[in-house]
Amino acid sequence: MRTEDVLAAIATGLWRWDNASGMVTLDGEAARLLGLPAEPVVLPEVSVRSRFHPVDWNEINGIVNLAVAEGTLAEARLRIMDVDGRVLRTVRSRSKPLESRSADGRVDYELIGTIQEIAEPQPGTTAAHTPITGDWRRSREAFLLDAGRALAEARSTAEVLRVAASLSMPGFSPDGLAVFGVAGDRLSIIGHHGHDPGDEEPFTDMLLETDYPAAEVVRTGRAIYLATPEDYKRRFPATWPLARRFDRVSWAFLPLTVAGRTMGAWMAAFKHPASFSPDERSVLTTVARMLAQALQRAGVAESERELTTGLQRSMMPQLGPEIPGMQIAARYVPTGGGLQVGGDWYDMIPLPSGRFALVIGDVQGHDVRAAGLMGQLRIAVRAYASEGHRPDAVLSRASRFLAGLCTSQESDPYEAAGAGTGMGPGQAAEVDADFQSPRFATCLYVECDPKTGMLEVARAGHPDPAIRMTDGTVLMRPTAGGLPLGIVPDTDYPTTRFTLEPGETMMLCTDGLIETGGHDLDTGWARLRAVLESDTHGPVGAHGPEVPGAGRFEPPHLERLADLLVQAVHGPSSHHTTGPLADRREDDIAVVLLCREGEGDGCACGTPPAHPARPARRTVLTVAQDEPERIAGARRQVRELLHDWADADQVDSAVLMVSEIVTNVLLHTDGDALLVAEAVGELGARRLRVEVADGSDELPHKRHPGEMSSSGRGVLLMEMLADTWGVDPQGEGKSIWFELHEQSKTGADQAP
Length: 752
Description:
The protein has 752 residues and is of the alpha+beta class. It contains 21 helices and 30 strands. The chain is 33% helix and 26% strand.
């Protein structure tokens, strides 16, 4: 008797599946089992694939790939569908994948095997439920690994429930899932899948004493398996009417237990009979444990987010009421690691004089203590400012307050002994060493007069403010400063006064905005300057960033500009995830923008005159006798002021003359040097005027230094490099000035 006859006699068909050609060869019995005419046939892969249940087809792919890798048999249980989508029968396939290499070197495989019909277990029988996948243990391990990884990556309760609903268990997939939570003596459903909206109503508030499987699971901590409706009706007759309407035939209720505490129950319901074999119960128990741990982690994470979000919102003030003639925008972005709250803060304080104060600061550290100190310091600064103190007095008192606060915490004997912590003195001292260490804070306090635009700035170790002028030029505004708050209790903080002109915007920020992303102060500032000077953020009004033909720029829209500044540092919000685009935030970020509106309908958006003039650029800087290092700042200010000057040689000449004049003031007088630089006119034809004033009446005079002399060339340099220069006596002291007229290199070369 032929082999084909023997296989046909026992209702077993043969098939050959060529992966390279995509063709499947079936004998007569195999074709019959697949719902085709009972005769040998060769069909394309898509025709055979349409006869299998989609879920089974997806699983057989994994089984075949695993068998190819391990060199073993691939065994699978498959449901055969008719053209109307109904299940005709269930078959078992056993096949051997054989590798074949094509002419071009590509590796494919052939499946050669048998297919045989099997009987489904009937309701009420004890026959073991045959798994869909061939190798049950390998499929179970792969499923549990995937489920564990997916649940571990879920960050919220909603994500955990979505993952639980998407789990496709090997051999038996639940048609309905529900997760129950416990609150006191009440059981409620916190998530479900496979049910219609509103189906959860009877289970939203149920006493634990109720005769319901989930309630009993929570009370006893033991799983309940109900293989048939008769089992359910017999064990829980009181609540059987609630379950009957869902048209399920098997149920599994498992406890959600973490660290010995049952926090809820998980229900898996099936529309097909499930006998709950030991292997199936093992899978369900493992999934329940992973689900419980994921829910606990998500609950803790949500509690932390709620706590830190509430703490952040309570500590970060809302910007006050609108100020006539000025617009304000602010952003706070906490650090990417740990608690989403840190030591950076900003504030806007109404003052008794009718003015208002802008404050921005940064307490050392990114932990809970830094956040606590920040909240206390912010309240203290607000209290001192509300009393009417001047900016220097506010910072002096705040420094004394912070120093005293850290000293009192450092010397607290109760905490040092570990009282109330459950730890011994040694453990408490080790754990609280950082908590009790002294902390300092940087701060920038600006008192603003909205009527005149006058700003009085006191700075405690904080980055200087930046000014965006009306023509789009951005300058860092150097201000006098003192030590950070809390280092020396009695510290003086000098005040710098300057005017925010109509249409100008001032930016205050913490160092996180500058240095995040591996930048230092110079490169970080260059990155921010490019954003501030760009025109992509648009104006605060209806006009564009530059009026065509007028050379007049509009100040940026503050809210849009604030977003662009933050995005320039750590990217858009899509980067705030794990993976290749991991969060790049390394430090807290606080930024405050203040714009003084121009004439018209706000922020220089009024009707332009018939022949508008380009706004003047101006910078003012004081170089004190004890701060010679600020001469470098004066050179940088002039170079930034002339960043788009046509002739680079003229820029170098201006920087050289400024350096020479300021240095002479510090060497030959006893007072400070006041530098005022202003550029006016249209592009390509501007005039730069630089004045350096001092308190000495001694006028400069021309000298004839020798070849080896190290000084005496200041007047000679101005005669050679400046278009015009001079000395103007004042009531007290004098003012030395020079002017340069912009000209392109082409125009200079053609001059006679």
